[in-house]
Fold this sequence. Notes:
Blueprint: H1 12-49, E1 53-55, E2 66-71, H2 79-88, E3 95-97, E4 106-111, H3 118-137, H4 140-146, H5 150-166
Antiparallel strand pairs: 1-2, 2-4, 3-4
Helix pairs in contact: 1-3, 2-3
Amino acid sequence: SSFTLNFSKGAANVIAQYYVLIRLGKKGFISIMRGLTRTADHLADQLERTGCFRILSARGGDGLPLVAFTLIGKKHYDEYDVAARLRERGWIVPAYTMAPNVEYIKLLRVVVREDFSRHRCEMLIKDIQMVIQLLDKLDAKSVEAHRPTPKSRWALLRNASTAFRRSKVVDALPKTNGVC
């Protein structure tokens, strides 16, 4: 007797995106995407230069402005350990296991967004290099001991969020986002 859509959303996001499209036009979007592509290519080149990573994503504007990469060779740490250490530095660089039949492949992913400047890209590169140097110095037992359990991850996030909200510094900080 009636037809409804569950989980419907308002149109505000669509309207806002339409406004941006009209305001910037095709040339504006092309300019933005070229900048994002240059930053993603720079990040991929720098990661590849370390000799520690193999880049899995396309470059030169083929596809999305993101960098997917994996560790090269057998190490006593994996992509999840790199992601966890980067999180300690304030970066959220997700680590993934691939789909069935290739689940042995793990990767890290950085999505280059408009607010991810070249300066922030350089900061991320330095932090990744520092994390790799640190993990190389540690032995397998130390790395294993530092791996958080799922329960401790939630406790850490809860404690960090609570401490951050209670901090008086929050209002003084410039609004930035370290999510990649």
